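// run 5 | inverse folding | seed 20
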């Protein structure tokens, strides 16, 4: 029996998603718009303002105008506003989850988790900015050196389409806490939930011009933000290729960059691991959020003595993953975000059929004849040079390969241009620590799925990014540090030029 395939359309959807510039809604200067579709029916449900250089100019000018007063606020005052933002986000949890699920295809239960995490980001950075001290150093008994931290200026924030509201909060919160004003460019595929920010920020008492939002296509609105001479720093989350482009464009302006880019993260499973726990972690880690997550453990490396058992059980679990309407609380994998992305993931599945052995999924579920749906796919016996082993797919697709010893496990884990996350499962903690130190990645979890404390640095190495965000690292990025040297004793400087010439 087929289940309904039409999306649960939220009430009160906007007729148009508009920019937010200088504390007011605004259309694009040239009136341009683009269509926004939901990923279940792939039909347009609204339009969004398509920003360009003139709209970004207006937004940057508003941010520059608001910067002196916002930067001059004490940390406690800014922290109080951030707490009010968190309260306003929490008060809208159900509405936010409903909009996010409808617009992005995320299962509704996982969208609710993103709403709670977004609120926590603001509470956390409110605490950080109040507690964060500045360094001071005594140089013997003669000099005192101290650091003054100041906001870096107008920040450009470019965010991705997966878990959009939460990832916007991830950048908004530390930028505001640091005293920066900003221009946010949300992803064009999922702009709906960003429409909640104006009412949230206004309710929390954020002054006009501190936060500005310009919607639009990356090549137009995003490019204008990257190129703008009055935006000295850019925080970007997205693909490695786009990150490279932003770096090239930012070189002339010597802009500060923070980039969280792609990932192809390994999960290393040793024979002595708790296989049940490892299996749960693998299934959740690569298939939750529809597989559209940068830290997904999409390369699973299993020690040969348990390889057949583990891959068999992984395939069984993948076949039982519940794919369905994003609005259904029972759904575990919803609809992929956009037809273009869906086609890209399906292309990788076809590539994988030629490169390895498909043992589960990889096709459209029979009860969902329309929409961007895919039964989670498991490929086994994947060679290291296979595209599905090397390239980021960003969907519910996992590549599995065996290894024979610890040395080979590390070699396979590092056999990719990416280095964002890694996961190690073993009963030998000494080995777990060794692997963690030898794997080239910015983050490693030992006997754990992806649980991250907000105080820890987030970021990758190699093609997975540049810089770190999270905790004090985010405050460092959005701030300039100035060292002041003060002489406390008598000055004894060599007196060049004080002697009479013979």
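// decoded
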């Amino acid at each position: 029996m087929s289940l309904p395939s039409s999306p649960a359309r939220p009430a009160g959807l906007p007729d148009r998603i508009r920019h937010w510039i200088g504390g007011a809604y605004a259309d694009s200067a040239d009136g341009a718009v683009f269509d926004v579709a939901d990923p279940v029916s792939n039909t347009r449900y609204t339009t969004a303002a398509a920003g360009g250089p003139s709209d970004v100019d207006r937004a940057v000018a508003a941010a520059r105008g608001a910067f002196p007063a916002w930067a001059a606020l004490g940390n406690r005052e800014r922290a109080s506003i951030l707490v009010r933002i968190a309260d306003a986000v929490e008060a809208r949890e159900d509405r936010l989850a409903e909009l996010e699920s409808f617009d992005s295809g995320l299962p509704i239960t996982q969208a609710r988790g993103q709403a709670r995490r977004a609120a926590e980001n603001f509470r956390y950075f409110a605490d950080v900015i109040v507690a964060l001290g500045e360094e001071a150093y005594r140089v013997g008994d003669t000099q005192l050196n101290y650091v003054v931290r100041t906001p870096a200026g107008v920040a450009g924030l470019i965010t991705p389409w997966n878990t959009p509201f939460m990832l916007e909060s991830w950048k908004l919160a530390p930028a505001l806490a640091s005293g920066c004003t900003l221009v946010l460019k949300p992803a064009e595929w999922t702009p709906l939930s960003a429409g909640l920010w104006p009412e949230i920020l206004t309710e929390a008492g954020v002054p006009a011009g501190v936060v500005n939002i310009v919607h639009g296509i990356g090549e137009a609105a995003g490019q204008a933000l990257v190129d703008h001479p009055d935006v000295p720093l850019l925080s970007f989350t997205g693909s490695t290729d786009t990150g490279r482009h932003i770096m090239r464009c930012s070189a002339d302006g010597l802009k500060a960059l923070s980039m969280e880019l792609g990932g192809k993260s390994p999960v290393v499973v040793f024979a002595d691991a708790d296989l049940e726990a490892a299996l749960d972690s693998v299934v959740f880690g690569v298939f939750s959020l529809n597989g559209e997550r940068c830290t997904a453990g999409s390369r699973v490396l299993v020690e040969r003595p348990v390889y057949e058992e583990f891959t068999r059980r992984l395939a069984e679990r993948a076949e039982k993953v519940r794919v369905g309407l994003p609005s259904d609380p029972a759904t575990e994998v919803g609809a992929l975000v956009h037809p273009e992305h869906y086609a890209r993931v399906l292309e990788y599945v076809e590539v994988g059929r030629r490169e390895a052995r498909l043992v589960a999924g990889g096709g459209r579920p029979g009860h969902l004849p329309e929409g961007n749906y895919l039964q989670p796919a498991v490929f086994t016996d994947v060679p290291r040079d296979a595209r599905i082993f090397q390239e980021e797919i960003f969907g519910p697709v996992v590549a599995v390969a065996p290894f024979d010893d610890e040395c080979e496990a590390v070699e396979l884990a590092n056999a990719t241009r990416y280095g964002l996350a890694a996961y190690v499962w073993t009963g030998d903690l000494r080995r777990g620590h060794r692997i963690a130190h030898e794997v080239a990645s910015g983050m490693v979890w030992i006997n754990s799925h992806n649980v991250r404390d907000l105080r820890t640095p987030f970021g990758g190495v190699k093609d997975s990014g540049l810089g770190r965000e999270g905790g004090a690292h985010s405050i460092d990025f959005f701030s300039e540090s100035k060292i002041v040297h003060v002489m406390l004793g008598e000055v004894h400087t060599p007196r060049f030029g004080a002697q009479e010439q013979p």
